[in-house]
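Priority: medium. Attachment 1 of 2:
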């Protein structure tokens, strides 16, 4: 390995900095070397890099030139295995960190990875989709946010209680206050949620105006009990 690195330095393919680290002299060299790896080798490399970054972060050694070590961790573990527990963990953490910085487009990307990882975590899928929909809405991606809320409603119909349907309807309504969304679709979801019995142990939903419900959709009427 040392001889190979020395030869690469002499050929000016890589350079060595003052800390003893090696870097490719040009992005084209790095891309060419990466393309020569098999998919299994790439996944293994990303896993090893992720594990090194994870250990460095745990020891308090995050590099100062990385504005978001969580984003780097998420990227490497997603490229290693998009369905892994680490891909899920760091995609969620990176998405929340990006949202806290109001970087909603970045949050959308990480939530999309989290939703993909949630295919192996059915209990987390609806929550991840709701977070993705909210990030898309805040990023100004109204139509894509609406599709995510409709997917939440689809999953909620297979589960107990009205909560998922209600949150999907509230999300669509929030989009409708900025971008137009068909009121009939919102009304239908709300009506479906109200007619569904609450699951055992969950509180009965409170359908009053509040900070997440600035106004009722036009034409909405509560179904007769």
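Attachment 2 of 2:
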């Amino acid at each position: 390995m040392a001889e190979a690195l020395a030869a690469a330095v002499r050929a000016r393919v890589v350079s060595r900095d003052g800390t003893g680290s090696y870097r490719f002299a040009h992005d084209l060299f790095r891309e060419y070397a990466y393309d020569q790896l098999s998919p299994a080798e790439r996944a293994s490399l990303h896993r090893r890099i992720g594990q090194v970054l994870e250990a460095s972060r745990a020891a308090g050694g995050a590099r100062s030139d990385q504005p978001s070590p969580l984003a780097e961790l998420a990227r490497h573990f997603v490229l290693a295995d998009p369905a892994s527990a680490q891909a899920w963990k760091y995609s969620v953490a990176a998405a929340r960190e990006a949202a806290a910085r109001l970087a909603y487009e970045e949050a959308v990307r990480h939530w999309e990875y989290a939703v993909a990882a949630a295919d192996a975590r059915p209990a987390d899928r609806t929550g991840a989709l709701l977070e993705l929909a909210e990030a898309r809405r805040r990023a100004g991606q109204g139509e894509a946010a609406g599709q995510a809320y409709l997917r939440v409603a689809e999953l909620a119909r297979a589960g107990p209680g009205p909560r998922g349907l209600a949150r999907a309807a509230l999300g669509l309504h929030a989009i409708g206050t900025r971008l137009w969304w068909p009121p009939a679709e919102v009304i239908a979801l709300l009506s479906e949620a109200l007619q569904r019995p609450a699951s055992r142990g969950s509180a009965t939903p409170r359908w009053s105006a509040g900070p997440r419900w600035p106004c009722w959709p036009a034409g909405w009427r509560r179904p007769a009990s």
